[in-house]
Design goal:
Largest sheet of chain B: 2 strands, antiparallel
CATH class of chain B: Mainly Alpha
Number of helices of chain B: 11
Structural class of chain A: alpha/beta
Largest interface: A-B, 33 and 38 residues
Distance between the termini of chain B: 51 Å
Number of helices of chain A: 13
Low-confidence stretches of chain B: none
CATH architecture of the largest domain in chain A: 3-Layer(aba) Sandwich
Mean pLDDT of chain A: 89
Order of helices and strands of chain A: HEHEHEHEHEHEHEHEHEHEHHHEEEE
Shape of chain B: globular
Helix content of chain B: over 70%
Helix content of chain A: 40-55%
CATH superfamily of the largest domain in chain A: Response regulator
Strand order of the largest sheet of chain B: 1-4
Radius of gyration of chain A: 24 Å
Largest sheet of chain A: 5 strands, parallel
CATH topology of the largest domain in chain A: Rossmann fold
Oligomer: heterodimer
Shape of chain A: elongated
CATH architecture of chain B: Orthogonal Bundle
Number of strands of chain A: 14
Mean pLDDT of chain B: 89
Number of domains of chain B: 1
Strand content of chain A: 15-25%
Number of strands of chain B: 4
Order of helices and strands of chain B: HHHHEEEHHHHEHHH
Strand order of the largest sheet of chain A: 2-1-3-4-5
Low-confidence stretches of chain A: none
Radius of gyration of chain B: 19 Å
CATH topology of chain B: ABC transporter involved in vitamin B12 uptake, BtuC
Amino acid sequence: MFYFALRLLSVVCTLLLTVALLPDASAKEMVKLAFIGPLTGGVSANGLGGRNAVDLAVRLRNADPKAKYQYELVALDDECKPNIGVQVATKAASDNGIVAGVTHYCSTVAMATVDVYHKFGLPVVVWGAVLPDITYANDYKEVHRVNGTMINQNETAAKFMTGLKYKRWVIIHDTTDYGKGHNKYFSEFVTKNGGEILGTFGVTADQQDFSAELTKIKELKPEVIYFGGITPLGVRIRTQMDKLGVKAVFEGTSGIVSDAYIEGLGPLAEGTLAFREGAPVEKLPGGKFFIEQYNAQKYSDPPEAYGAFAYAAAILVIDAVENVGPDRKKVRAELNKTADHQSVVGVITFDDHRQNAVPLITKFVVQDGKWIVWEDSEYAKGKRKLVRS
Amino acid sequence: MDLGLLGQYAFNGLMLGVVYAMVAVGFTLFFGVLDVIKFSHGDVLTVGAFTGLVTYLGLSAAGVTLHPALAAAAMIVAMLLMALLGAGIARFLVLPLRAAPPINVLLITLMTGTVLRESIRLFYPSGANPKPFPHLLPTDSLSLGSFTLRYDNAILLILGLASIVVIHLIVTRTRLGLAIRAVAQDGETAQIMGINFQAVVLITFALGSALAALAGVTAGLYYNEINFGMGLLLGVIGFSAAVVGGLGNLYGAIIGGFLFAGLQTLGAAWFSVPAYKDVFSFAVVIVLMTWKPSGLIAERSAERV
């Protein structure tokens, strides 16, 4: 009898528990999205800005009563290192609950992980990496990109700089795929436009001391030093240029368009030039909305240069899930056919390699501790002059 | 190439060399007294550099604005604390393993180094990012043709050279140095002669580690940036320099340090791809070691058990 009572009790308890644990009928199905970017390391400022922007997209959609699903963000840190990137990409891709991803700022990492996404069939949208090969070297239906490639930005850079009557360049680039790509495209376009390259210096991405290279450069007397690489190395090279008395215009790429570059250099950043695809956030069609919403969340880090692209990528992914449901294959097909999608960075249309065509390249110059659009700067108006050696 | 540029190359090489030599001297001191290789040396340098930065941040938050004073304080605090850390590592990790095979000491210090490095990465606020190190020395410069000499670099070079000279004088001219040399030659006999073996070992480790701390702060002031991994390559280079020069020999370490810096500068100046400079300098080091396995200046007592 006692045992019977005990069994009855346990059955009742189980029933009660089951009822308690049953989901509320009105609650929406939970859908997980991955964000991958450099959250620590030298370029973490960009990664954190991107993470926050994606988080913002998720929050706004969760607050929307009309949304069909509830979204959860899984943010992973690739440390801007290809090996770590492959690890976290595999982690995200092998989690069946994750439907799609917004991935990578660093080109070397994005390049290393495309195979993983393809193998596991996880659709991803690249939000910041600019190496053309990420979308063009393979025909992986899983890989999309909302930001432009380094081809466009270097073409504009070369035309613009030769237009300013600069003739003699020295190129420093890091020896990753990213740096080598910049070197390749810039060299090609600058010589085509009549510029002369006096020397090309490949340096390792974690190099500390550039005094020997810069002394050699000093001997070559370039008018412009072109740097193909990302912020930490850019800060080091610009600092050491000053120490060795190398007087030349410092021209970077989208890799140094970040607040961290200015913070790292202080007044020395003045007059640095750089180029990035897309218009500056404030001038984008949805830029005002994006900045207002971003600031309203009181994130501790700024959105940085690629935050708006990360936000647009997240919205693209979320919209696809809303349209076809949380199924990787269907989301992939939906993303593939993206055309004339209105976003904060403008209209997104993917070509046959799922690459967004971003025709506009913006020229930036550092003026009084801020990245200013060239046309709005005192340099363009002739009030200030870039150094000439 | 004109004379100014030659001077610039020479100065760059000297600056690198003095930092390498400071690290190499530590390796050689430790090997001298205990016949051990302490692989956490590079990371002690990193911790020293961060200690310097924290000292600076603390003092400037407390309202100190005089730059030379801040620089001096950063150096002194870093050196004192790293001397303690070095002595601590010797007392609790190296000395207890005296009877164990040398490979154990090598391993335990290698792991200590990893712990130090990762601790900075994980526990220092956003420690994975490179930290800007303040300009604390005068940044005016002197230009002679194409040679630019910044006062801060000159001060750092002189300071580094002076510190090596001081260590040299301590080892060769003082009673403490005599004790160190006695222990280095034969620990047991030194003990019989009334030398406090443990004290001498601890002081030696403290000296070497203080020098590493100074090298760390110097690197910070020179590059205006420090990061948690800076000690790794400096440690390897310092160690190679000490070995090439002849482990256990003070002059050897100094020569090794400057030799390595010279090779790097030469490599960077020669090759069209400067990234090859490390490959070049390490390759030359390998050749040198096959030519003179016990270092350029070999220890006189060949008997080592």
